[in-house]
Amino acid sequence: MVLYLHSALLKPQTHLLFLLLLHPLLSTIASRSSETQKPRFLPVLEQWVTEGGAVEKQELQSLVRLLKDFRRFNHALEISQWMTDRRYFDLSPSDAAARLNLIHRVHGLEDAENIYVQENSVEKAEATMQKMKKLGMAKTSFPYNMLINLYSQNGEHEKINILMQEMEENGIPLDKYTLRNRMIAYIAASDMPGMETILNRMEEDSNFIVDWKIYSMAASGYLKVGMIKKACSMLKMMERMMPLQGRKSLEFLITLYANTGHKGELYRVWNTYKQSNEPMDVPYGCMISSLAKLDDIEGAERIFEEWESQCTEYYDFRVLNRLLVAYCKKGLFDKAESAVKKAAEGRIPYASTWNALAMGYTESKQMPKAIETLKKALSVDRWGWVPDSSTLTACLDYLEGQGDFEGIEEIISLLKNLGPLSRDLYHRLLRASAASGKSVSIILDQMKVDGFTADEEAYKFLETGPS
């Protein structure tokens, strides 16, 4: 009967969700997703866990494979990422190979390449490469580009030439991503002759289109080794090729010219290109940060005032954040506080705005103010935002050192609104509760719901704390 009702409800998507019904967890997902045209799996999984439902790694792996088989690549990728990001399961080489393939399909090659750069795990990436070879998935440049990128990030430059030689032996063409990644590796190694060799090869080969992004990379390489004149030459090439309009290209130019230290050129670029962009598309925040980097606080203030004068409807606090960071680095906290107070008149500052102040106070060792502004940040309902980890740790360490366990509990209570707590935060909460003479059993139960087993640290509270 249940199957019949679902089949009547689900229309063309029935086949996928029919199979989901074969498992209690998956049938719950199917039934709760059936009321919408596009099933949303993650909210249902979150609700399932919140209600005490068990989720095993093997079940999630099966669900990923099932969704992939039915070409639901977006959903499969969401489940794969939820499996590790929210449930803290380890990613096996097979899981990683599947995720790489999904990222490649959903987001494209560049995002797929970055997965192990983010994890910074050469061993995992090499294991995944071997798995992909066994599965016949290493017949294109994609997995090689991934490894080249990772070797570059980890300084293992000798392995890159071996990979490129293997590609040529296997008849796998060196595409623009391969050469780009090789160029990045030379830049990482401060090998300018090597970088120039790749750049010249790309310029001379009609199969490659050298765009402004390549010249921006070359400029970055020259800036890294202090070759300012050559960097400026690359920036001129970049200017000739880049689109006159576009926030991203203008931000690249502004940032790179700031790195040359030529403030006059920075203002020239700003005054030239902002005229060809709509006001909302002009990266005022980037210009403010660049001027602050060149110790031109007054110039940064003028740019901010120019931007603020145009804010008739929408006020983007991220632009203010750039000025706050500049003020805090200079120790100008009175100016920072005044700027926030003025901006907050009739508006609600972003969580990141309070967080910028909290970071500044933390760096200047003004911990009571850092804690106060961190709490304000955590109290703002801002989807997707998380506090700066070093600031959060410093504030919690300070409170623990002061014996302010109520303060710790307050901050962690606010953190719960952002998502599941980490093991470290649970340990802090256990210590605070035990020190306050409170029961720890509820906390230990919640740890289990969030996928944590009671470790040695937790058992201490079971033995010594009130239950």
Automatic annotation (TrEMBL):
Keywords: Repeat, Signal, TPR repeat. The keyword Ribosomal protein does not apply. PPR repeats lie at residues 140-174. Coiled coil: none annotated. SUPFAM superfamilies: TPR-like. InterPro entries: PPR_rpt, TPR-like_helical_dom_sf, TPR_rpt. PROSITE patterns: PPR, TPR. Residues 1-30 form the signal peptide. GO terms for cellular component: mitochondrion. One of its GO terms (molecular function) is mRNA binding. TPR repeats lie at residues 351-384. Belongs to the PPR family. P subfamily. This is Pentacotripeptide-repeat region of PRORP domain-containing protein.
